[in-house]
Amino acid sequence: MSSAIETIRISELSPKFMARIAGFLYLIVIVFGAFAELGVRAKLVVPGDPAATAQNIMAHQTLYRLGFTAEVFYLACNVPIVVIFYNLFKVVNRNVALLDAIFGLVSTAVEAVRLLAHYAPIAILGGASYLSAFTPAQLQAASYLSLQLFEGGFAICLVFFGFDCFAMAFLIIHSTFFPRIIGVALAIEGVGYLVNSFTLFLAPAWQTRIFPFFTLTALAEIALALWLLVMGINEPRWREQACAAGYPA
């Protein structure tokens, strides 16, 4: 896998330029993800009410489809981000950088699969002739269940992403070319994601109580994306660390 990831050679692009590309793509992920969650699902999904949720989705199909499309697009952005991060941080520790890449790709794959559950309500409520075997209430319940499975899939995704945060935190903290405080913030965020997900798995009644306490930890990702986009990395120090690790700088 490492040879495939290294198909983009470090020497082809300036490290600072690569960092800024990663920052730009990361902001796309954050903005599109926020739109899908806050601008679409939060407006259309009525907790505990399958009928109202189904009515909202069918009355705002274009908005619902835009949310789905935004998520597909930002997941595609995750792949080049993984490649760039590996190339930037393998000079710190190649094994941890590879681990970070694997966790990132697995997280993205899990999130991509769960999108089927996001699309399912459109198919279930679409009025196809073969669905006449089910009552409207049954179709509404099936649609709502698919959205619950969608949320469960996100919790699974966040387990892998939590470990991804730990690996990235290690790489940033042990680098000489990136603010270490962002690495510390990412480690805290990783803890938040793991606690949130495993609480949902083991004690779902408590998950809704603790979730608000961990939402602020996502600021670490915003800080990471903005720093990459605006500041990039300290290129002279990156090249020093690359030479020390035996990589061409």
Instruction: Quote the distance from N terminus to C terminus.
Output: 22 Å
Pattern of helices and strands: HHHHHHHHHH
What does the overall shape look like?
Answer: elongated
Largest sheet report: none
- What structural category do the secondary elements indicate? mainly alpha
Q: How many H/I helices? A: 10
Rounded Rg: 20 Å
**Total number of distinct structural domains:** 1
* Helix content bin: over 70%
Count the strands?
0
Per DSSP, what share of the residues sits in E-state strands of 2 or more residues? under 5%
Question: What is the arithmetic mean of pLDDT?
Answer: 90
| Uncertain residue ranges | 2-8
Topology of helices and strands:
Blueprint: H1 2-5, H2 15-44, H3 50-59, H4 61-89, H5 94-124, H6 136-173, H7 180-202, H8 204-215, H9 219-230, H10 235-244
Helix pairs in contact: 2-4, 2-9, 3-6, 4-5, 5-6, 6-7, 7-8, 7-9
Describe the structure.
This protein has 249 residues and is an all-alpha fold. The protein has one domain. The chain has ten helices and no strands. Helix 3 crosses helix 6. It is elongated and about 65 Å long. The two termini are 22 Å apart. The N terminus is likely disordered.
